[in-house]
Amino acid sequence: MGCSAGEPGVDTSDYIRYRLAQMEAELPWSPAVMADAEAWQAALRNRLGVCVGAMDAERVPLDAEVHSSVSLDGYTRHAVVLQSRPGLALFGYFLVPHSTSEQLPAVVCLPGHGRGVDSIVGIAEDGTQRPIGAPEEYQMDFALQCVQHGYAVFALEQISFGWRRDEQARAACAGASSCVRDSMAAQMLGESMTGWRVWDAIRSIDYLQSRREVDPDRIAVMGISGGGLTALFTAALDTRVKCAAVSGYFNTWRDSVLAINHCVDNFMPGLMRLCEMPDLAGIIAPRALFAESGSEDSIFPLPAFRGACARAEEIYAAFGVSQKFGHEVFAAGHQFHGAGAFHFLKRNL
After folding, report:
1. N vs C: which end of the chain shows fewer Cβ within 10 Å?
2. Helix (H, G, I), strand (E, B) or coil at 343
3. What CATH number does residue 194 fall under?
4. Cβ(91)–Cβ(80) under 8 Å?
5. Summary count for the chain: helices (H), strands (E)
């Protein structure tokens, strides 16, 4: 005899909600942790690093190689390959504005799902440069926007996107990723895609700090969607990040990745046992954090974004740096906006 839909114990979403209701996080932020905030931050940062995995990789020499350079409208774009960890190189574009004689603040820019890093630096599918102000997809050329605001940029190609996809994804279409296969391989190795990508972002910071054009003490991270995930975790795990701008990701895990279909690259074993997403603000504070969300974002719901921001505001107030957290809601779906984010970056970086 079969069972009917909605019968108790049959629907797995009911079971997930039941488990979440029973679970108490081990290291959430609360006003009580402020009695020894540094100890709590160190404990959560350490456990978070273990949870995402792959954070103990050998810091091999960067061996950075600039493969090409092109002068464009107001900036130069360098295509760079450098060593991330044993057996793995990363690729990105270093963008630097023309006519600067001083060290610049810099931003590591992290794309989300789509064609990859080319989409955020204005490179069309045919390899030509699109005119500034004519973005494609939902990412709005935000790396180019950073350059226009006077920042040096390292636009990182995240693992499984664009130039760093496997052969099957390359053969499929321009926007296909190898996230699912690569993320599952990472978990079979006891690691996670988040850990792999965050380590790449950390190595990108190493590279920026090696460049004479960059002020090594003024580095930010900025990302949209899956890039927002990497930006948030990188800021939580690497205290060199002075400011993080997170677009289309800041929310709660309960209401987003655990409630709505998302790519497997969002998942890390045991994460909910540690804390909820807004608690990560507690290990970024007192450094600066900005979050934005489209009012019609269907995969990171607005009510949960507002709740996460209220939690972050409480955390930053407890640290006595309320002005170091900012957020914005804009009228759109799942896309980059940036209006408030760039004002916030200017103020804090």
Report:
1. N
2. helix
3. 3.40.50.1820
4. yes
5. 11, 9
